[in-house]
Amino acid sequence: MKTVNRICQILAIVFGLGSLVLFFTRFATIVSGGNEVNLVGAQLGFGSKITVAGTEYNMAISSDILFCFILTAISLLLSIFSFKSKKLRYFAPGVGIIDAVYMLVIALSSPAAFVDRRPLPDITSAEYSPFVLITAIALFAFTAFAVAYLLIDDYIEVKESNGAKQTIIKRIIRFFRDYKSEIKKIVWPGWKDVAKNTVIVLIMCLIIGALIWIIDFGLGKLLELILGA
Question: What are the residue ranges spanned by the domains of the chain?
């Protein structure tokens, strides 16, 4: 079991590193003024200078791709440092799934929605390369192995504790059971109380709004007198 656990941890790092490397492959092809421009993911995320037909352009930053790149780097670092601190094993899958879903949305959307093409003139077409979808798949694989490592490692700890600890799944189930029991203890107000409290809140909002308007009006008139003098 420990061997499988270590394999999952290593595979998570491999897929995380692979996802990061894929950002340095061709992500998009843009046809500008009849010239084909190939851009890698890092260029789209961080912006760069490119030359088209002898003219240099400063590419704008595509913030969505940059965000995914940063999340990929963070999730990879969390996986690597989980060798030293097991507490980090909880964060890598969370960051990874957000990154994977976001990257999948980018891959399945039109390039016009996520690729900032403003500096380039006379754009006739823009297409993603297959590497965008491959990056999203690699991120999902990273997340799957990170989750597997988390669950297996937690299972090993529970076994070694001789019943002193519970698995993550059991702790989650217990949390929702406790939450459900606490919800049942809530005493909900009746319709009369709700109506009365709503009226009080609205009246207080009107009073405070009127006071703010009076103060603003007075200060405005005072400022006009000072500037007029």
Answer: 2-184, 192-229
